UniProtKB/TrEMBL annotation:
Chain spans, region Disordered: 16-45, 78-126
PROSITE patterns linked: CYTOCHROME_P450
Annotated positions binding heme: C617
The keyword DNA-binding is annotated on this UniProt entry: no
Cofactor (UniProt): heme
Family: Belongs to the cytochrome P450 family.
Locations listed in the record: Endoplasmic reticulum membrane
Protein name: Cytochrome P450 4V2
InterPro entries recorded: Cyt_P450 (IPR001128), Cyt_P450_CS (IPR017972), Cyt_P450_E_grp-I (IPR002401), Cyt_P450_sf (IPR036396), Cytochrome_P450_Monoox (IPR050196)
A Pfam family hit: p450
Gene3D superfamilies, A to Z: Cytochrome P450
Keywords, comma-separated and alphabetical: Endoplasmic reticulum, Heme, Iron, Membrane, Metal-binding, Monooxygenase, Oxidoreductase
One Gene Ontology molecular-function label: heme binding
Native source species: Pinctada imbricata (Atlantic pearl-oyster)
Phylogenetic classification of the source organism: Eukaryota, Metazoa, Spiralia, Lophotrochozoa, Mollusca
Length: 672
């Protein structure tokens, strides 16, 4: 066994005192008191059986302690793997080694008839395997757990498994081994500035608290080490290195090697699968190439009618609030954005603006909240633990609602697509049929949705599967509704707080539309040059995605710092966009910064609201057009007056940057 310094052993004793409490011993119950037989399991393995009911019967503080112990042990250095299997273990002497189950081991001394009955029950039980890589073993066996139970296999050749205390010591030793590795890694990045980190938990305690506190803490760190342009944090055992200067951000974003999303994105997988946002490697490359035509100019032109219809619906609702004092406009804009993304993504109207009780609408917002909470709560990490608690059950319910809705729409669209194929319709026919009059106001019946494009798309000459299509539709839904809603809300506040700038936008609208109430067209949107500058400036001050990350698959030299493999690199547009070298008086709302003559010589990575480089946002043109359409529709009819000061907005850095108390405004009908 590896020898440790006195300092390490002192820490070990402290951990042992914490881990070997009665609570821990009661919870981690071994399957039998005897050491497992050599006939069924290696002497260096022990199964620990944890049941759902066992966890649910605990007090909240006790449960939190248990989950912390388990998650700390099993998630360090990502040593745990989660896989599901539907295969049946083979009974009898010919059974394969990797299919041995704890139930079979425990019952090896039973009579032959009893053993057959046990194996028969196992054959009809859906199992989940939760293997854990060991410290010093040459091979790994799989232990199955029935239904709500979970079985861990801990590998440690130096342990005596005749009681629970030794199991705890194994876990303790595993932590200490990992701890020495982490300490070595920490010393290798001591030259990167950052706050002091505690053993094991790192800086996680400094990031606890509300979403507002989390956002403010990261902004504070970027300001504290502004001259360095970098800071480092340890969240548990994971190293995070933040960059917020154009020169270092460029190294990360333009790289063809640093393309993998940060590990924190894994919590999006249950909803989004491995679509364009979360996929890596060859799958990401092929998907990006496949989906790019779906954002063709002709397709975007088709979406203008959707923007117009939903914006008009929103304005009708706002009419009832105009000239009646202060109100919160946040939900009006947000629900409009959700209706737009549903119709453009799936060709389906959910009427979020008219039916706020829609279960689908509620689940879209709830699951985003649950994902964020899980990202910041270490003991919520492992699926088999998360699924036993209230948040996990609510997450599962939301997933069911969201996936069932998407799958139903895909099925309906697939049937329509089959009929079109029978009539000889191809992608080329579709695009040419929408090319005859680009300014035409397309009827809802003739509009194309993102889903239609996916049905026509082919990967290696083959159509996309239903599962692949669902991944991309759900990804488009996730990325498209909150980001644009956030951007539009922040812009409304900024325009309402700067009446001189709002007046210029009104003048631009009047020059395009005059006194006409006609529907807007793509040509109109292209002429809104000053409004586009306003949108870009709002995205600079309040970037909808305040942070995004990349995972390093190899050591990387960034500036004068070497960031080790396995680290997460965090880009902070919220800090990057406030660099006075490129944006003098950075807190001032000044759309003129984005006039061609003022932005032409700016560093290309000083402004990245849609990321940049190979993994930039594929839908950024869509987002800009949507914002133009919705904001112009509001300003054609109303004058906006903001009723909050900037410091009263209190940005909350969740998955998307939101104002804590909404956007309070007064609307006054314009008299032309």
């Amino acid at each position: 066994m590896k020898q440790f310094s006195p300092k390490i052993w002192k820490r070990q004793q402290k951990i042992q005192n914490n881990l070997t409490s009665n609570h821990s011993r009661d919870t981690l119950t071994p399957e039998g008191d005897d050491k497992p037989s050599n006939n069924n399991m290696d002497n260096d393995q022990i199964p620990i059986h944890i049941t759902k009911s066992n966890l649910e019967n605990r007090e909240p503080n006790e449960l939190k302690k248990i989950l912390t112990i388990i998650s700390t042990t099993l998630t360090i250095e990502h040593q745990i793997e989660h896989r599901r299997t539907l295969s049946k273990p083979e009974a009898g002497p010919g059974a394969r080694e990797e299919q041995a189950s704890p139930e079979c081991i425990q019952n090896q001394d039973k009579t032959e008839s009893e053993q057959k009955q046990t194996n028969k029950q196992l054959h009809h039980t859906k199992r989940r395997e939760v293997p854990m890589k060991g410290v010093a073993t040459q091979k790994r066996k799989v232990c199955y757990a029935e239904n709500e139970a979970v079985t861990f296999v801990i590998n440690a050749p130096y342990a005596d498994f005749n009681n629970v205390s030794s199991v705890v010591k194994v876990m303790e030793s595993e932590i200490l081994l990992r701890f020495t590795e982490i300490e070595k890694k920490r010393k290798s990045v001591e030259n990167i500035p950052g706050p002091p980190a505690l053993p094991l938990i790192g800086n996680a305690h400094q990031l606890a608290g509300t979403s507002k506190e989390f956002y403010n803490t990261l902004i504070e760190y970027s300001e504290r080490w502004h001259e360095h342009g970098v800071f480092r944090l340890w969240v548990g055992t994971q190293l995070l290195v933040g960059f917020y200067k154009a020169e270092t951000v460029e190294v990360v974003l333009q790289s063809s090697k640093i393309l993998d999303k940060a590990t924190e994105y894994r919590f999006l997988h249950p909803w989004l699968g491995t679509g364009l946002l979360t996929s890596t490697g060859s799958k990401w490359h092929s998907r990006r190439k496949l989906l790019t035509p779906s954002f063709h100019f002709k397709i975007l032109n088709d979406f203008v009618g959707v923007f117009q219809d939903q914006a008009q619906t929103m304005v009708k609702r706002l009419d009832s609030m105009a000239d009646r004092g202060t109100f919160n406009i946040f939900s009006y804009i947000t629900l409009c954005a959700l209706d737009i993304i549903c119709e453009t993504a799936m060709g389906k109207t959910v009427d979020a603006q008219g039916n706020t009780d829609s279960e689908y609408v509620k689940c879209v917002y709830k699951i985003a909240e649950l994902i964020l909470k899980r990202q910041r709560t270490p003991w919520y990490g492992p699926d088999f633990l998360y699924n036993t608690i209230g948040d996990g059950k609510e997450h599962a319910h939301c997933l069911k609602v969201l996936h069932e809705f998407t799958e139903k729409v895909i099925q309906e669209k697939t049937e329509e697509f089959s009929k079109k194929q029978e009539s000889g319709m191809t992608m080329e026919n579709v695009l040419s049929s929408h090319d005859s009059n680009e300014d035409a106001y397309m009827s809802r019946k003739n509009r194309l949705a993102f889903l239609d494009m996916l049905l026509y798309a082919k990967q290696d000459g083959k159509p996309m599967s239903s599962a692949d299509i669902r991944e991309e539709v759900d990804t488009f839904m996730f990325e498209g509704h909150d980001t644009t809603a956030s951007g539009m809300n922040w812009l409304i506040h900024l325009l309402g707080a700067n009446p001189d700038i709002q007046k210029k936008v009104h003048e631009e609208m009047d020059s395009i539309f005059g006194n006409s109430d006609r529907p807007l067209t793509m040509k109109d949107l292209q002429e809104m040059k000053y409004l586009e500058c306003c949108i870009k400036e709002a995205l600079r001050i309040f970037p909808p995605v305040p942070f995004f990350g990349r995972s390093l698959t190899e050591d990387c030299k960034i500036g004068k710092y070497t960031v080790p493999k396995g680290s997460t690199v965090v880009i902070s547009p919220a800090s990057l966009h406030k660099d006075p070298r490129y944006f003098p008086d950075p807190e001032k709302f000044d759309p003129d910064r984005f006039l061609p003559e003022n932005s032409r010589k700016r560093h290309p990575y000083a402004y990245v609201p849609f990321s940049a480089g190979p993994r930039n946002c594929i839908g950024q043109k869509f987002a800009l057009l949507e914002e133009k359409a919705v904001i112009s529709t509001i300003l054609r009819k109303f004058t906006v007056i903001s009723k909050q000061k900037r410091e009263e907005l209190c940005p909350i850095g969740e998955l998307i940057l939101r104002p804590e108390n909404g956007i309070l405004v007064e609307l006054h009908s314009r008299i032309k």
